[in-house]
Specification:
Blueprint (H helix, E strand, L loop, with lengths): L1 H13 L3 H15 L2 H12 L4 H14 L4 H13 L3 H8 L29 E5 L4 H7 L2 H7 L3 E6 L4 H4 L5 E6 L9 E4 L3 H4 L18 H11 L4 E6 L9 H4 L3 H8 L4 E5 L15 E2 L7 H10 L2 E5 L2 H8 L4 E5 L20 E5 L7 H12 L2
Helix pairs in contact: 1-2, 2-3, 3-4, 3-5, 4-5, 5-6, 7-15, 11-14, 13-16
Amino acid sequence: MSGDRIAAATALWRDGQRDEAISLFRMAALSSGDAFAHHLHGEAAELSARDVEAAAAYRRALALDPGFNQARARLGTCLLRSGDYLDGWRHYEARLFAPGFSTILALRDRPRWSLRSRPGRRVLVHGEQGRGDSIFLARYVPLLAELGARTMVFVQPELERLFARLPGVSTLLRNGQAMPEFDEQVPLASLPGTLGTTMSTIPDAVPYLSPPDDVVDRWRRRLAGPGRSVGLVWSGNTAYDQNDRRSLPLSGLLTSLGRDRHRLFALQVGPPAGETKGTSVAPLASELSDFVETAGAILALDAVVTVDTSVANLAGALGVPACVLLHDAPDWRWGLSGDRTPWYPTLRLFRQRRPGDWSDPVGAVSRALAEL
């Protein structure tokens, strides 16, 4: 019976009937007493921004199966989004042992860096998430170096030139490069918890990343012109399974932004960049070979409007004012309310009021740009 309910709940979810699906997931979980069913209920509630309900479901799953690392990690993100960093970081560590983290299997059992580590140790800092997450968490590398670590940082190739200028980096390594000799290791996304970050101790000084001056100067010449210049990003990585929720068509932006007199430039890369064809938006994708180039372009613009993707994190890390469009149940770093984030002082957040409806936040962005 619970299997039938789960199948029916999944069908309702896919059909956009969230409340009905969550109710059926809850019934299936409570009637079966199965840890995975409770996890499914928690996942649906979390994706609907019902974090109290989601956390309770994850805790029920863990009561039945304390080793259910996927549920524990999701409980962590729920708590982080609600601002409970103390317990959130602790549970979030379970992600390292959950399915899908095979990239760090060879490292997680090696000696781990901690606040008790001796100064001078060679510490391998490695990421297991996306480029935006690497940019977001790069702020912790200088802190690690200040504590005496000789940091050896693995980064994605597109971030290599940008991270080469990050203070505190002793050795920069490209993902896929042969593993060097090191004394201790720490996942990049574990540094906030390892360093005991709370809402009041977030390292919020910006900028902490910067492109070379000559790159910025070149982009300023490239984008010079009359009127205000605005960079647009309307889609994240299309390979991400939740990308449709955080993204919108370019036409959805232009409906409001096109009414104002802006010179519009697409900072968008990947397949969605093709949507500029036949519009007034100038495509820059062919010139954005890595994140140093994107950073230079951002610094040459008057404003940036972006969905929740790497460019949002990059603008924040550069200390540039930017408008970030968020769907109704965004990543934990943005929280569930407010138009500001303690992680990035220069960013302004524009949130959906209704799932899938971008009209309110896009309209608010248009009004905000008009006030520049």
